[in-house]
Specification:
The chain is 68% helix and 0% strand. The protein is an all-alpha fold.
Amino acid sequence: SLATAFQWSRQDLPMLISEVDHKRWKKSIYAFLETGDTETLPVMDHRACRFGQWYYSPESQRYASVESFKLLEAVHLDLHETGRQMIQAHEAGNSAALATLKAQLERHSGQLSDTILQVQAEVLMNAPPSRQ
């Protein structure tokens, strides 16, 4: 694939694994819904989760000019808001709301993954041709 053929720099690594961090966060929400064990709850503060820590770090500013990078913030905020509502619905025993929110979480999750891929594509397009 294009992404693997490209020589990513070490500084790009956090961006490349940011999706993994997000998926882990989402998994933790589902684990909580199944067990009700608050120990499994992920960090709900959007700046403190691993994805947020990366996004708001000086390191991520290398993508400041990348259009898709700016879009990530809103999608990520929506995810956290939906996650919060899911926990509330779960605690209120509102299974109908929970089903709707789960679908919403999956939609936002897909958007986040797509947007991360767009960031990668833009970085590739803007990269100087590699000297073979």
